[in-house]
Design a protein that fits this description.
By secondary structure, the protein is α+β, with helices and mostly antiparallel strands. The protein contains 4 helices and 13 strands. It starts with a helix and ends in a 6-residue tail after the last strand.
Amino acid sequence: MRKLASELPARLTTLTTAVVLGLLPVCVSAPLSTNEILAAYQEPGHYAALTILYPGNETVFPPEIVPCAFSWREGAGKAETWLILLEFPDGRERLSFLSQRLEWTPTPAEWETIKQRCREQNAKVTVLGVRRGAPSRIVSRGQISISTSKDEVGAPLFYREVNLPFAEAVTDPSRIRWRFGAVSSTNPPSVVLEHLPVCGNCHSFSQDGKVLVGQPLSIW
């Protein structure tokens, strides 16, 4: 009984603390709303510069290319969340997406819609930076335009993967790799030739594409 009586105040204190904490309001960050950000955005407004690294301005994509990763770099804005806004010349509803990272890749379905709506005409891509605690205050902006060609690549690509800087690559051509793949494939292009100790720039294929003929030359 004495032990129980001595423990009772401590238990009452714990219970009281739990009740008080339970009555306190819980601060939970509400999910950001694209509508709130867009409502605050003013096209002629002045915002800190945000640099879109990829794709480049006025990039023309082939129609069969897989989704690309849009990436950007913050300047003085120090945003924490970004809204990607796409506007099209067809006059229909614009598209908007949120990202918590300095990059965003559309889903295959989203990418197909984007490519179709900017076929042979420019779509404007705007990236707006905001802070999570104040989504109605836009702190940075970057803009580019993209479009989709009506012409397909139509064949796989065979190309050299040259290590940079180029001045170092030419001194050791064995580090240059040759890749082969299609822009419509989600798999990385396969390495089909590497460790060539001399320059292999001069080359051609047989008409059926089965034979590669090269004329290796010394870089000296």
